[in-house]
Design goal:
Chain lengths: ~475, ~475
């Protein structure tokens, strides 16, 4: 059963002709300039497929791009383990989930920054599992208490134990990819069963902008494609440093990078389910760092949703971001701005949408709860304005008449629960009632909610025998052993 | 953007929640409602005006049924382009098509001042807020925000307008409380503009009157509307349907009723004085059905304003809209995301004169000095989104990308230097530092930084002085003004 998803597309920052202009410029760059591919195996694959290889430089004729677009799937199902929450990525259907993965979390209550632990992966998975607007779980933090080579498998294990929603994560190393796939295989029963219902997937930052394949990550990408598992490509050129400073220029380069990635995945295995992973970024002109809570960032995410729709490929992108260090009004307006732009354009799979603060440098439990409300509101926008006769309400307007009131009219009673959304954390009380309740800010109400949710009895999402078998094979745990 | 100008005036329209045929249908249903059901007109002059022009009227119920052709005539006569002038020409608003401007709103009885004290508002607040707004680069006009509680009603209009005009060179629009007030305020405007004709040519002031939902033109405010039209100054006709209370609960029904109401007001204005500038006005929202209370931060309000803007575009008449409010009692994350969402949606939809977008909090019952500074940022971001993504040979930068090549960088490219100032919105409030620097600077929240900026502006900013001699002439001609 699919999780319900609403469609975007009501907002279109790029005209059709602008999209064609960007497409043509990207093709020109791929055929004339090409990409650098240090990975020997990948270069060989490109050559065999008909690319023009000169040293490390690989030039891609337009025909190769066309071939890839002909075999790349137009829809992808990212499965849940309970079968109740699968995601159908297709067209302009929009989904929202967490993102990763910084090494810092803000402690519940104090909002103090501290190193993330494996137990945070588990607790954040528990929270993601119960938050109603969270469609999927991207492994949100990099734990500091786990040796690097064991991080991939431990993170996936902790998440698999605590949520049945679809889980996506980075795999860190080829060994990590093999381990995670093997663990998925054990849970699914077989490799084929896992391919049939992929409840895990990965994203790979295989591209170092501008236009350069990363040697090691390309191996991970190759392995994962060979397994026929869903993969999100991810390239994140930054306007002003690793991409042209103009938004359109960044989009052209990013589009070329994504097309090169799509070509590669289809060369490795035709029909590999790929999420185009357009992550256009913006440089902080003052510090040289990354900016995330800006209107330009949101504009570019919206534009890449249109580009992915142009190619009819599901999109992995980023929104609901902020550069604020704490959960203040800035966090509120930056997150709302970037998410609304991205979702209204119809992006398929918006990660980083729950929990991120300080651009991508920290995760906050409270912010996850607040973002759940922001997503609820954005979903209401996607639902739009229904204009059938029942919603136009001409009969009701005539019945009530000039100077009348609608409160107890049948039409009001019929629609009062369904027409509006009801955010859980928003304060809509009078000032006196709010003061009487302790004059608590949004972040404090979020703390209450998080503490309540995390205090509920925990139920492992892995059957005990399977859990034991996994732990016998892999040196994994979930970091919550000390609790209770 | 031109140097010295504000960020207003870019064209929206990239967000369109209603389809074209849906807008046409709403329009047509609204005309039917006016023709068949009619509206109540309690201003005697208005009632007689409708009768004299051939509307079907009923004395006892005061119902006026307005023929379709009369409404269509009025739409044709209403100006499609309205100049709302600033005392300083660089602040002129040219309302037409999908051009977007945002400003303050009111009228509240309370302020939250810079010492954190919540208190009754005074005339000094009118003056201080005007001066604050004068210095805020993204707040494009003033709708007079607060009520001077210390003044008797007959002195309120003249003092509100005078204090605003003196302290701010942007366009001043305000609600009015007495008929004499309208006439005296016009005298003040004439003295500053340089005469009666000069004021009509460059109206630096305009007025707000209102209609009552559902479908009622009030005696008092209807008379004001007629007087302003006779005087030939621009008037916004504020209409506030509340879903579930004074309008259908469904969004489409709500917009349909508003369309009928707005057209009745426009028709009256054009019958009174053909060609007089009038703005169909929208301040509607939903009610929270748990409390039957009025809510301002609801995301549905963004959808409603976008829909209303689309209907107004269909008529071609510039509209007066609402966004940026919040139900929060404090300047927290909720205030940020609620305000950002409605402002972004109304702006992207191309609403023309969006009021309430700066300074209001707590259901529009309180004006916050800090919030003006915060909303200035939210509006700046929204306007950057409205500006969109320019796609042309220069911005797509294909040659620049090919020159940088795989692995290259853009930091020192000529193209980067050329576009680094123009391509991005530069925040005046948002924190974009790294955590260490933010902590070293005191870990200030957006609210704390806004407080500092507001204090600085109020300590230093001097508005453009009134023309020489105007002040003396105004005091001689209009008794009852307070010298601040």
């Amino acid at each position: 059963m699919f999780r319900s998803a609403l469609s975007g597309g009501q907002y279109r920052p790029l005209s059709d002709s602008a999209i064609r202009t960007i497409h043509a410029a990207s093709l020109r760059i791929l055929s004339e300039t090409g990409v650098n591919v240090a990975n020997h195996e990948a270069r060989t694959r490109f050559r065999q497929a008909g690319a023009i290889v000169d040293g490390e430089r690989v030039r891609l004729p337009a025909a190769l791009v066309e071939d890839a677009l002909a075999t790349i799937p137009h829809q992808i199902i990212l499965c849940s383990r309970d079968g109740q929450q699968d995601l159908l990525l297709k067209g302009q259907r929009v989904h929202f989930g967490s993102g990763g993965s910084p090494g810092t979390v803000l402690s519940v209550g104090t909002l103090q920054a501290r190193p993330a632990l494996l137990r945070d992966v588990s607790l954040l998975a528990i929270l993601a599992d119960v938050l109603g607007e969270c469609d999927f779980f991207v492994l949100p933090v990099t734990p500091s208490d786990i040796p690097p080579q064991a991080i991939a498998v431990n993170r996936f294990y902790a998440a698999l134990k605590h949520t049945t929603k679809h889980i996506m994560g980075g795999l860190i190393s080829l060994q990590g990819a093999r381990d995670v796939f093997a663990m998925g295989e054990m849970i699914a029963g077989s490799a084929d069963a896992l391919r049939e219902r992929p409840f895990i997937s990965c994203m790979t930052s295989w591209m170092i902008s501008p236009l350069t394949f990363d040697g090691d990550v390309t191996d991970i990408l190759t392995f994962w494609c060979q397994q026929g598992m869903p993969v999100a490509l991810s390239s994140a050129p930054m306007a002003g440093s690793t991409a042209p400073i103009t938004l359109a220029g960044t989009l052209v380069q990013l589009n070329a990078e994504q097309l090169a990635g799509m070509v590669y995945t289809q060369i490795v295995r035709k029909g590999t389910p790929v999420l185009a992973g357009y992550i256009p970024g913006q440089m902080n002109l003052q510090t040289g760092g990354y900016l995330a809570g800006t209107p330009e960032f949101g504009l570019m995410q919206a534009a890449v949703a249109q580009l992915a729709q142009f190619y009819d490929v599901p999109l992995y992108c980023t929104a609901c971001m902020t550069d604020a260090k704490t959960l203040d009004e800035q966090a509120g307006y930056e997150k709302a701005t970037t998410l609304l732009l991205t979702a209204m354009a119809g992006a398929s799979y918006i990660h980083h949408a729950l929990g991120m603060v300080e651009n991508m440098n920290a995760v906050s439990y409270e912010q996850m709860a607040l973002d759940n409300d922001i997503i609820l509101m954005v979903k209401r926008v996607l639902r739009g304005i229904e204009t059938d006769d029942e919603h136009l309400a001409v009969d009701a307007i005539q019945r009530v008449g000039p100077g009348g009131q609608y409160m107890d009219d049948d039409h009001t009673i019929t629609h009062l629960r369904s027409e509006f959304c009801f955010p859980r954390l928003a304060d809509r009380q009078s000032r006196s009632a709010w003061e009487l309740a302790g004059a608590r800010e949004a972040r404090q109400r979020a703390t209450d909610m998080v503490q309540r949710l995390l205090a509920e009895p925990r139920q492992s999402k892995l059957p005990p025998s399977l859990d034991q078998a996994i732990r016998a094979r892999f040196a994994v745990h979930d970091g919550l052993e000390g609790d209770e | 953007m031109h140097a010295g100008k504000t960020s207003g005036g870019y064209r929206g329209g990239s967000f369109a929640p209603l389809k074209k045929n849906e807008v046409e249908h709403i329009h047509s249903v609204a005309l039917d409602l006016l023709e068949k059901e009619g509206t109540q007109v309690n201003t005697l002059t208005g009632f007689e005006t409708f009768r004299a022009h051939g509307a079907v009227v009923d004395e006892s119920s005061r119902i006026v049924k307005i023929p379709r052709s009369m409404v269509e005539d009025a739409i044709a006569k209403a100006p499609k382009r309205i100049l709302l002038a600033g005392r300083d020409e660089k602040h002129d608003l040219e309302l037409e098509g999908t051009r977007v401007y945002l400003g303050t709103g009111g009228t509240t009885l309370n302020v939250l001042d810079l010492d954190g004290i919540w208190r009754q508002s005074t005339l000094q607040d009118v003056a201080d807020i005007a001066r604050l707004v004068d210095a805020l680069e993204n707040v494009h006009f003033i709708v007079i925000p607060v009520y001077p509680s210390e003044l008797p009603e007959e002195r309120v209009d003249i003092n509100r307008f005078y204090a605003s005009l003196k302290n701010c060179s942007k366009h001043i629009q305000g609600g009015i409380y007495t008929m004499n007030g309208i006439r005296d305020v016009i005298k003040i405007g004439e003295e500053i503009a340089g005469g009666a004709e000069a004021l009509r040519k460059r109206p630096i002031i305009s007025f707000i009157t209102c209609q009552i939902s559902p479908l009622k033109i009030d005696a008092h405010y209807g008379d004001f509307m007629i007087e302003i039209c006779r005087q030939g100054l621009p008037v916004s006709i504020s209409i506030e349907p509340l879903s579930g209370a004074t309008a259908p609960i469904t969004l489409a029904g709500h917009i349909t009723q508003w369309a009928a109401e707005a057209l009745s007001g426009i028709t009256l204005c054009q019958l009174v004085n053909p060609g007089t500038p009038c703005l169909p006005g929208y301040v509607g929202t939903i009610t929270d059905l748990r409390s039957m209370g009025y809510v301002c931060g609801a995301v549905e309000q963004g959808l409603l304003n976008a829909g209303v803007a689309q209907v107004s575009h269909y008529w071609g008449i510039p509209c007066y809209s609402t966004s940026g409010m919040s139900d929060s009692k404090t300047l927290d994350a909720q205030a940020g995301y609620e305000g950002a969402m409605t402002t972004l949606m109304a702006s992207l939809a191309g609403a023309n004169f969006i009021h309430d977008a700066a300074g209001l909090m707590e259901f529009a019952m309180t004006c916050s000095y800090e919030k003006y500074v915060i909303d200035n940022e939210i509006i700046g971001m929204a306007m950057r989104a409205v500006r969109g993504i320019e796609v042309n040979d220069e911005t797509i930068a294909a040659d620049v990308i090919m020159e940088a090549g795989p692995g290259g960088n853009y930091l020192t490219a000529e193209h980067t230097v050329q576009h680094m100032r123009g391509e991005f919105y530069f925040p005046t409030l948002s924190d974009r530092e790294r955590r260490q620097e933010w902590e070293a600077a005191g870990a200030l929240t957006a609210q704390q930084r806004a407080n500092a900026r507001a204090r600085q502006i109020l300590a230093e900013h001097q508005p453009l002085p009134l023309p020489v001699g105007a002040e003396e002439r105004i005091f001689a001609r209009v008794p009852g003004l307070v010298k601040l």
